[in-house]
Amino acid sequence: MPGSLEPLDLGVQIPYHFRCPISLELMRDPVIVGTGQTYDRSSIESWVATGNTTCPVTRLPLTDITLIPNHTLRRLIQEWCVANRSHGIERIPTPKQPADPVMVRSLLNQAGDESNTRHARLSALRRLRGLARDSEKNRSVISTYNAREILIGILFSEMNCNSLELNLESLAILSSFPLSESECLLISSDPGRISYLISLLSNSSIDVRVNSASLLENVVAGTKSPELRAEISNHDEIFDRIVGILNYPFTITYPRAMKVGIKALFALCLVKQHRHKAVEAGAVSALINRLSDFEKCDAERALATVELLCRIPQGCAAFASHALTVPLLVKIILKVSDRATEYATGALLSLCSASERLQREAVAVGVLTQLLLVVQSDRTERAKRKAQMLLKLLRDSWPEKTVRDSDDFACSDVARF
Q1: pLDDT in tens, 228-264
Q2: Does a structural domain hold residue 9?
Q3: Rounded to a whole number, what is the distance in angstroms from the first to the last CA of the chain?
Q4: Judgement on whether residues 274 and 220 belong to the same structural domain of the protein
Q5: Residue 1 falls within a domain, yes or no?
Q6: Name one GO molecular function term (predicted).
Q7: With left for phi above 0 and alpha for psi between -120 and 50, is residue 8 left, alpha or beta?
């Protein structure tokens, strides 16, 4: 075998033994398998996950898939990266080792055993929280050992100040896991548990508030019973506190707060009979003021929430009274995604159907051009249908020049609707 492979575009040859035999790329987390060969962790894990049971190099059976970190080789690779940084090579950070299943099981047992001291249980939970935060793989390992049931038991075992730290650590870990339908039902069917989570939405720590909102969103979204979802969204304080998370002054520098806040608000607004509570809590201003700050997926969810609230009179009136509503919705129609186009157009359709003033305002800020582009684009059929309905509604408001130039957009197709 050659001492090095062909040079890359970096202008430097990478030593052969620094490359993973599977991917032929520079190893970031070299590990040794049972045959003594070294591979990059992600590559050998993928190899085994696809059903391979032999060592890629020696072809010997891999009877034990335990992966042992090759610390010496990793340090040599890091030193080589530093020595060649003038060629644009960045130093590979020291990887965090994945959670050991035996240790995870021990920590869960220690945390769940009420005969242990409070300090020992708290220490175990904090170590589990650190592992869960490190990687998706760690979360997968933790969830294998009945973790969610144990953590739910700890969170709601003693809902008082004496065990508050244990509760909050359990909550922090639980908020990073999806819950099963039965686990959601276990929480949503107990009014005391829901009230406790809602009370944590007013905690002095923004982290606690976000974790509680995350778990509540998970529960609402995962509960199939309309009656239970309605009971949760009927709590007077829940909308105020969720909107408070969206209005948190430093939300832009804390993206998880924005993500969790809009997910929770959307889940609660899916319950039609209580949408007015979201409006009363100030959701309209929060949505409009934050709309341009959301990332793609969250922007879609925010626009979906806007459309839902526009379907009730209180929501429609509140959005109509906000000076930025129509200009923002028109501006965003084609800027985010197909779904965002559909939601923004649907919201404008509701608003313009309720107010001739908003019709004139929408036309004045250029909605016609946007809608004509939607109709002629490859957007979803639902988005096109809403755009066509809105064009028909606004037909009497079209400026003469727009009507004269509309052949460029095949407007004759729109006129039939």
Answers
A1: 999 999 987 899 999 999 988 865 678 889 999 999 9
A2: no
A3: 71
A4: yes
A5: no
A6: ubiquitin protein ligase activity
A7: beta
**Six-digit token pair at 347?**
């919201």
Q: What is the pLDDT of residues 191-231, one digit of tens each?
A: 999 999 999 999 999 999 999 999 999 999 999 999 999 99
Could you say which of 269, 294, 322 is where a domain stops?
322
Q: Are residues 309 and 188 in the same domain?
A: yes
In this structure, are 121 and 189 located in the same domain? no
314 and 194 in a common domain: yes
Q: Residue 206's domain spans which residues?
A: 183-322
pTM beyond 0.70: the answer is yes
Indicate if 300 and 348 belong to the same structural domain.
Answer: no
CA–CA separation, 103 and 87 (whole Å): 41
For the beta carbon of residue 5, count every other beta carbon within 10 angstroms.
14
Q: Which residue has the tokens 């729109």?
A: 414
Last residue of a domain, one of 130, 146, 177: 177
> Who contacts 26 (Cβ-Cβ below 8 Å, separation ≥6)?
14, 18, 19, 20, 77, 92
Which residues of the chain, if any, have pLDDT below 70? Answer: 1-11, 158-162, 250-252, 397-417
